[in-house]
Amino acid sequence: MWKNRIAGLVGLTLVGLVAAPRSQGQGLGNSPYSRLGLGDANPNLGGTRQLGMGGVGLAAPNGVQVNDLNPALIYYTGRTTYEVGINGQFHTVRNRTQSQRDGSATLGYLAFAVPISKWWAASAGLRPYSAVDYNSTSTGGVAGDPNGQTKEQNTGTGGLAEAHMSHAFRVAKGLTVGGTASYVFGSIDLASGVSLTSAATTINTIEHVHYSDFTYRAGVHYRNKLNSNLNYNVAGVYTFQSHLNGFRNTSIERLDGSVVTSTIPQVVNQQGEAVVPGLAQAGVSFDNNKNWSINLDAAHQQWSEFRSFGVKGGVTTGVTLSDTWRAGIGGEIAPDPSSVDNYFKRVSYRAGLSVAQMPYRPDGRVMYDRAVSWGFSFPLPSATVLDATTINLAFTYGQRGNTAKSIENPSGNIKEDYVRAQLGVSLNNRWFLKRRIE
């Protein structure tokens, strides 16, 4: 029995890690907006179950999947649970003159939760914190030379990962609190090069930045009955402002063709930090404690306070970010979780909608990220009282940005259409039970 449990855990971990060999740099397949700040930030949207409902679930307790969206909900872990998620993404990026399609597959998350006592539970995991993956090329003229033309290319790779541990406690009937401590670490590599299209020489500015430090999150959840058939839940989560320590190296690189002929260091081991603003989230949900729930979440983050090495918006782009908000609504239903003669009545079906304000505002105009999500949970027929395995799927179709012209982007802003999918596997088992009969 123990050998089978351990083999299952190891197997799922290897699947996750093999699918994403760069756990620190989650490739997005050329996402231009990842050039801003620390890259495409991974918002606190939970695992596969929550993604299928539009990234909501702050107030939605669940005993089958790990819900570390709100650390206070870890208390509801009914059995030792191990979960792994794999992400896939396909998107089209375009402005008024060009378009490009890309795809990628990465590690979504690893999570482990265990009930410790009647009033205490804990979890640990690994997930992306931010991702940088872009490659853009633009051309321009040469002053005084009507036939001359320059080519500028900007690239970025890397990102940050988050290793986290949470504890949740029941402090009163229906009231739980929880906290998460995370260690954030990773590196970002950026390059900006300019060359004459008529020449083979390119001058690149190379930048390498490494960040690492601790961040903290606190959550609270309250559950009670409206009547004998309906429960309500309210919750709040706050991720505290963090100061990620970092060091930065920059250099000037000269290439003749594809051969580097000289490298001149500019900045060596510059000490600094990235100030990441706090994130406030609140949620409410209703359920019948049996087979359905509906959830509404909202979030706000002051990205206008973001700084990297003392510069608003970051030392590379210098683009000041703006405050953001996000709202989502979603729900789930399992027609008959105890059905014996119809498997699909035991399947959980989910759907949700979300809208978010982006932190980038060309010419002061607000840009949005709108998405629709859906998902499923398929319990394996081999489930027993002691152990169970569930296959979880979540899909999202969305659009962010627009192609309107701006002073910053005369060829039009960047609009991204994306389809994202996440495959998750949950293993549940009752550990630490003493055998009555050997």
Describe the structure.
With 438 residues, the chain is mainly beta. The chain contains 2 helices and 19 strands. The protein has helices at 2-19, 48-52, and strands at residues 40-41, 80-94, 99-117, 120-142, 145-172, 175-196, 201-227, 230-239, 242-256, 259-276, 279-287, 292-301, 307-308, 311-312, 324-333, 348-357, 368-379, 387-401, 415-429. A 14-stranded antiparallel beta barrel has the order 2-3-4-5-6-7-8-11-12-15-16-17-18-19. Strand 9 (242-256) and strand 10 (259-276) form a beta hairpin. The protein starts with a helix and ends in a 9-residue tail after the last strand.
Radius of gyration: 24 Å
Structure annotation, total helices: 2
What distance lies between the first and last C-alpha atoms, to the nearest angstrom? 13 Å
Low-confidence spans: pLDDT under 50, at least 5 residues? 1-27, 434-438
Largest sheet: 14 strands, antiparallel, barrel
Overall mean confidence score, pLDDT? 85
The strand line-up of the biggest sheet is: 2-3-4-5-6-7-8-11-12-15-16-17-18-19
- Class computed from helices, strands and strand pairing: mainly beta
Basic shape: elongated
Q: Count the E strands.
A: 19
Q: Helix share of residues?
A: under 10%
Order of helices and strands: HEHEEEEEEEEEEEEEEEEEE
Percentage of residues in DSSP E strands: over 45%
Write the layout of secondary structure elements.
Elements lengths: L1 H18 L20 E2 L6 H5 L27 E15 L4 E19 L2 E23 L2 E28 L2 E22 L4 E27 L2 E10 L2 E15 L2 E18 L2 E9 L4 E10 L5 E2 L2 E2 L11 E10 L14 E10 L10 E12 L7 E15 L13 E15 L9
Antiparallel strand pairs: 1-4, 2-3, 2-19, 3-4, 4-5, 5-6, 6-7, 7-8, 7-9, 8-11, 9-10, 10-13, 11-12, 12-15, 13-14, 15-16, 16-17, 17-18, 18-19
